[in-house]
Amino acid sequence: MPAGKEWTFERGVRQPLFGYWSIFWGALCEILYVPCAIALYKERRHPCYRIMLWLAVVDVIALFDSCICFGLLIIEGAVFCSRPWTVWIECTAMAMWCGACIGCLLLVTYRLFELMNIGRRFDAQTNMVLVVATLYVLYFALLTPPPLTNSAHMAMFFDPFIDDEIMFVNWAHTANNLLIVLTSATLYIIFCILFLTKQAEAMSEAGRARVAANAPIFIQASLICIFNVTASLEIMFRGKEDNNIQIY
Q1: What is the Cα 193 distance to its own chain's centre?
Q2: pLDDT digits (tens, 9 = 90+) for 190-232
Q3: How far apart are CA 40 and CA 35, in angstroms?
Q4: Distances, alpha carbon 102 to alpha carbons 38, 107, 135, 162, in Å
Q5: At what angle do helices 87-115 and 47-63 cross, to 10 degrees?
Q6: What are the residues facing 149 on neighbouring strands?
Q7: What 3-state DSSP class applies to 156?
Q8: Is the CB of residue 86 less than 8 Å from the CB of residue 149?
Q9: Which residues contact 33 (CB under 8 A, 6 or more apart)?
């Protein structure tokens, strides 16, 4: 059967309720991101805020692909063969997810540098590091297998569910998720130990001021990375529920 709308009727399931909710949630988050991005832009001289601004751009693109476009597709009941061109939306969504992962690692790494009082040595390299992170995103977008929308399961899968004899796996994506979970957990344990140690040693007025200034950024960076690690774990655990599929 050739690619086209016939696949929607043959393999797809229209999901208007979840689709409209996905569009609504994505649009709401996009609107809320505007003042957040403006605030981050004003503080862009600070390396950590520059990384968070980069993450904001990544998240805005990811929300558009993973919520708004995805919602439109499942309302229609799309599967891969009904609209093959949507692969560009799906590969961008996956790339943005991997970009958010590497961005969170950069964030906790820079916070560690600052707590160790060596952050200023790396301030000048922040832009170059973000260029490398952008190349990492482009690698996933252009050179790895993309996840494919499946309206029947209301998710994106690497398996198009065409041939049960073939397993479709994106090992780079799997490695990315494992890297994020293991490395982020390790770095945050070190981060928390250092932060508590610095706080205990902050006997002077200058020391207490430095800890107080670091606390809000510590909370912001922690929340961003905790949600990212939780999402990575969920993707891996859900993917193991069925040995024949990998979920994005």
Answers
A1: 26
A2: 777 777 676 655 555 555 665 566 666 666 666 766 776 676 6
A3: 9
A4: 22, 9, 11, 32
A5: 160
A6: 156
A7: strand
A8: yes
A9: 56, 59, 60, 63
Backbone angles phi, psi at 46, to 5 degrees: -80, 130
- Rounded-to-integer distance, Cα 221 and Cα 108, Å: 7
Residue 225, phi then psi, degrees to nearest 5:
-75, -35
Tens-place pLDDT, residues 68-85: 999 998 898 888 777 778
**150 beta partners:** 155
Name which of 130, 135, 144 is nearest 175 in CA terms: 144
133-148 burial, b at 16+ Cβ within 10 Å, e below that, comes to beebbeebbeebbbbb
Coil, strand or helix: which one is 205? helix
Structure tokens at 125: 């390299």
Query: Three-state DSSP class for 242?
Result: coil
3-state secondary structure of 122: helix
Within 8 A by CB and 6+ apart from 102, the residues are 133, 136, 137, 176
Q: Residue 196: which residues within 8 A CB-CB, separation 6 or more?
A: none
Structure token pair of residue 208? 């207490």
